Amino acid sequence: MSTPVIAIHGGAGTITRVSLTAEEEARYHLALAEIVAAGQAVLNAGGSALEAVTEAVRLLEDCPLFNAGHGAVYTSEGKHELDACVMNGADLASGAVACVTQLRNPILAARAVMEKSEHVLLVGPAAEAFAARHGVVTVSPDYFHTEVRHQQWLRVRGQARAMLDHDASSFSFAQQAAEPIDPDHKFGTVGAVALDQFGNLAAATSTGGITNKQAGRVGDSPIIGAGCYANNATVAVSATGTGEAFMRTAACYDIGARMAYAGQSLQEASDAVVFETLPKVGGRGGVIAIDAHGNLALPFNTEGMYRAYGRGELAPVTAIYAESA
Ligand code: ASP
């Protein structure tokens, strides 16, 4: 029997001590601790890694602090288009949805695609109709509105560019509109990876994408091997960052491939992808990764990444900045 372990992330970027007030920081730590503890409870009760990552990501989607579900960012048309993916390491079963606008929890729709269809990825209104037929709750698009994200979008709309989430200058409640927006500095997305007591791995990722993204743009998060990957033989990974770079490098799959074909450790493989492969194509962000022995690697090439993990019955460990990694 393995000691179950779960790790989660809530996005990476220029998250510096000056960009968050003490109150905001405390709010993030609390949310991360509560959500990882909920995942641990699933695992400690004998639940599967798949159940634990689904539940953790569902809670991250419901939390307005993170760019997924309620709290998602706005597209260039002032709407929300959500992407999510889940993968089971035991049999490589996977399910994903992209460009959905009316599903309260896209991760539950991804799970339905995995378990109730013969496909891996469904998109747009047809994905929503499929999910609704399988009991996934639909909401009015207004449900995804939050004032912080709306203000963030109002500041960049009209500019011919998209902006990654968690921008220090745009996201901080304390510093709204204080500085110009640097499109390279902040990312958002949520994810979870877990090892259950039966030795199974699973991964899940969900996102609102990037602020002011072109309508119809799909990033790495719902793409198997790019933003999400799980295989009991190697690793479970969930990514956050500049999605196009993670897609072009098949970043999450590459971590597993390095372990399988080059004999690299989890840490070596994760570090190589995050600090060498991704920067070569301008990729910024990070991953959370876990292997079948319960080892964890949480590398990121940005100033910070909202992250947390919990082993067995031990208290959750949460971190935001690089120095407390
Ligand atoms: N990777 C996500 C995307 O490109 C964004 C992020 O993680 O911030 O859609």
Protein architecture, described:
This protein has 325 residues and is an alpha+beta fold. The protein has a single domain, classed as Glutamine Phosphoribosylpyrophosphate, subunit 1, domain 1. 32% of the residues lie in helices and 22% in strands. It contains nine helices and twelve strands. The chain has helices at residues 22-44, 49-62, 106-116, 124-133, 147-156, 168-171, 243-248, 251-262, 266-280; strands at 5-13, 82-88, 93-100, 121-123, 190-195, 201-207, 228-230, 235-241, 285-291, 296-297, 304-311, 317-321. The strands form two sheets. It has an eight-stranded mixed β-sheet with strand order 4-3-2-6-5-1-11-12. A four-stranded antiparallel β-sheet has the order 7-8-9-10. β11 and β12 (317-321) form a beta hairpin. The longest helix has 23 residues, at 22-44. The protein is globular. 57% of the residues are buried. Mean pLDDT is 89; it is low at 167-185. The chain binds aspartic acid. Residues 11, 164-165, 187-189, 207, 209-210, 219-221, 227, 240-241, 243, 285 line the site of aspartic acid (ASP).
